Amino acid sequence: MSKLRALVYDPNEVTLKVLDQLLVPHQKVYIPVPTVASAHAVIKRMNVRGAPLIALVALLGLTCDIVSKHGTSDAAGDGDPGLEGYVMECVGTLKTSRPTAVNLFNAMDELEAVVKKLNGKGVVKAVKELAERYLEEDLASNISLGNHGAKAIENMWSESNPKDGLNLMTICNTGALATAGYGTALGIVRSLHKEGKLGSLGVLETRPYNQGARLTAFEAVEEGFPSARLIVDSAAPAYMRGRVVHAAVVGADRVVRNGDTANKIGTYALAIHCKEHGVPFFVACPSTTVDLKVETGGGITIEDRGADELRKAAGAPEGIETWNPAFDVTPAELITGIVTERGVVWKGEDGEFDLEGFLGGQG
Ligand code: MRU
């Protein structure tokens, strides 16, 4: 568990504040999130980001919003005939914040289903319990998937017994700042580090928002990961050619039925470089990031962050047009294994992932 907190939630006072990740690592400023409008705003502006964290902030923001109006008793909100409608409206609003990470949509759909069954009784209590359960489960599932991933990579290289530890690469930020506090792909790194088996970590800067340079580098320094190095995105293949890299580990915003995976723009390039250099490429995510409703990567909506953000980040002139997708899709064929809290999904003899079989029809 990291010392860093992307969100601070008080279940007694029912308050939420989030670390403004646009200011990290230079400042640590927390933004209060008392309403659905403020939850929507911090997600959309990317003050908070990362697939699991987005879902948590949406759930907890909605909880704070309705608790502030109705309190926390078992019957809170029962006298308000408009409450169910209000919650549904909030769900609709929160779903418009960012389109690619499925965690938000899964969380909102579950909340909607729970509330609809209540016939107006105990809505506030049920929303609060659901949000708090997600918070607890995210941490537990990250620890579990971190340990599964670490073991899988250790086993893969056990015969060559790398005495200086395992050398990993990663992109974007998938750590404590993207989750409830442990991380997915960076959770694997954390688990290896805990066992004293991490040799080095190559951190891609992750243009144009630099989540690698600002956030993962920050976590790596805070955690004291050995030989953690920041690398510009375009140096990835040269880095792999010049040294032994045992695995690349990346997160996911949505893994679809055939294993195609949407993640931060640049992930696809990293996977291609891994293939070229014989480096195993692992996707790490809780099973709540798997979307069995979508067959292949072509069905994933990819967010475009627009021209202003890219021009500003790149120092480009006003007149230039842009194409600024926040994510890309890595085809399943480039993925070695998908690490979840339930274990690692490997390809079958047919060379395909069977995510539905692995997850037992859920996810
Ligand atoms: O645009 P961001 O910063 O929200 O993108 C985040 C990523 O792509 C992460 O890799 C993904 O959400 C997994 S976080 C555990």
UniProtKB/TrEMBL annotation:
Subcellular location: Cytoplasm; Nucleus
Site positions (Transition state stabilizer): 172
Main location, first listed in the record: cytoplasm
Active site: 253 (proton donor)
GO cellular component: cytoplasm; nucleus
Domain of life per record: Eukaryota
Biological process according to GO: L-methionine salvage from methylthioadenosine
Family label: Belongs to the eIF-2B alpha/beta/delta subunits family. MtnA subfamily.
Name of the protein in question: Methylthioribose-1-phosphate isomerase
Coverage span on the entire protein: 1 to 363 of 759
